[in-house]
Amino acid sequence: MASVREIFISADPQETRVAITENKRLEEYYDERSTDERMVGSIYKGRITSIVPGIGAAFVDIGLGKNGFLYVSDIVETKPDEEAILEGEAAEAARPSSGAPRRSRIEEIVKVHQEILVQVVKEPFGTKGARLTTHISLPGRYMVLMCNDSRAGISKRITDPQERGRLRELLPKLRFSQEAGLIIRTAGIGKGEKELARDVRYLSRIYQDIKRRSGRGKAPVCVYQEYKLSQRVIRDSFTEETQRVAVDSKIEFHELRRFLNVLMPGVKVRLDWYQGEEPLFEKEGLDEQIEALFDKRVQLPSGGSIVVEPTESLVAIDVNTAKFTGRRNLEDTAFQVDKEAAVEVARQLRLRDIGGIVVIDFIDLDVPAHRHELVAVLQDALDRDRARTNLVSFSDICVAELTRQRMRRSVETVSHQPCPYCGGRGSVKSVVTMAIEAMRQAKRTLKRTQHKTLELLVHPQVAVRLLQEDRQSLKAMEAQAKAKIIVLSDPALHLEQVTVRVSPT
């Protein structure tokens, strides 16, 4: 039975949420607040403010308040993620043929006050500024354009020799500039010269616009801002297997339709504007699945479970048999639970957008063949991830260590804040998150009742947010529903508690 792949987009004034499902099961989830700066992928003309030879890095003012940092390796060497997807022969051709090259020094390459074109590859986190690179790349539907790298390549994920040969013959015909390189993405499998060339023309227009803006603008200035969330997901995650894209916002629907006509002209996409009474994510059973992303314990089909524990330095994941005892022996029981856990761990990494070091403590397996098969299952599940993952080691006691590319904050760090009730040992939903949920509950209640006066009882911090920053959104909701919404604060309420009362008047 073929899987049913769908993309659901819910856009509110404060937040856009995107869920990708297969057979109604959540496989990828993203959200973006209206106050978030779209940084990763954006390109800036910056100015070097200082150089620190000891760490081989320069600090760059890109106009965001906190300086970004640029390692010497992000100037003189190919970015790891680009090199990883280039053909082996293309990557080798770019390296010196013999002898170890002298290690470049940052102070020999850039100078203080120098203007430089950079791209954000990792957003600021904690006290660290954004990580930058001069190896600027522009992803399209089927191609990636590398602005300062003339090499051409094919994604390593395209493994079929015949298809690689066919695409390799097309690459020279697609080149439009001697100074810009191209990589064919996995989405380019089976595509002809016409489709690939259309994508190159689309990227070349962006490239030429960036060159014009960078030539005119005075640093620091943004010369290219990455697309908003819904457009990024369509560009990077839409495949021919996607049955439909459903959007609950009229504005977002029309914007996506225009974007699709530019990005994929001629490609048939079922884009639906959802106008039902019931909220889209609630109707599709997504709210409960999203809420489960913040639970530490995840149940497995067999009855086993995994426990996800983020720490300061890494994410620890423990695998337990829990209620599952199996029918044969302990080894077979452990093997079955471990295989289920390997698939679920890879899914949770995608859903929660966990990055950095991940350590997985599987149940011990005594049979070497079982351990080898478990590694294969885990690697296969990780290969589905668009983020770069690297299975570093798998020990004889079934402890796996891997790394996952971290570009943005995880889902939990975006939507939660340190808990004021437990001294920071746990976390609760943030004030912004609860204000959004309060308005969603109000909207849901207004659709289901004839009474047109509602009282929202919330924590005082949430009340302040609703009556100040979100006042205009509340007024718009009142005007649309021809109703009155009264916000009441109650210090006795927990920060995550919202009560909606219907007034008969």
User: How much is the average pLDDT?
Assistant: 87
The total count of strands amounts to: 26
Low-confidence stretches: 80-100
Strand content: 25-35%
For the largest beta-sheet, the strand count, sense and barrel status come to: 6 strands, antiparallel
- What is the gyration radius calculated from CA atoms? 25 Å
Q: Label the structural class.
A: alpha+beta
Helix content: 25-40%
Number of helices in the DSSP assignment: 16
Shape: globular
Give the CA-CA distance, first to last residue: 54 Å
Quick synopsis:
It is built from 16 helices and 26 strands. By secondary structure, the chain is of the alpha+beta class.
Report on this model:
With 505 residues, the chain is an alpha+beta fold. 34% of the residues lie in helices and 27% in strands. It is built from 16 helices and 26 strands. Strands 4, 5, 6, 7, 8 and 13 form a six-stranded antiparallel sheet that branches. Strands 16-17-18-19-21-20 form a six-stranded mixed sheet, covered by helices on one side. The protein has a five-stranded mixed sheet with strand order 3-2-1-14-15. Strand 4 and strand 5 form a beta hairpin. Helix 11 packs parallel to helix 12 and helix 14 (431-448) crosses helix 15 (460-467). The longest helix has 24 residues, at 193-216. It is globular.
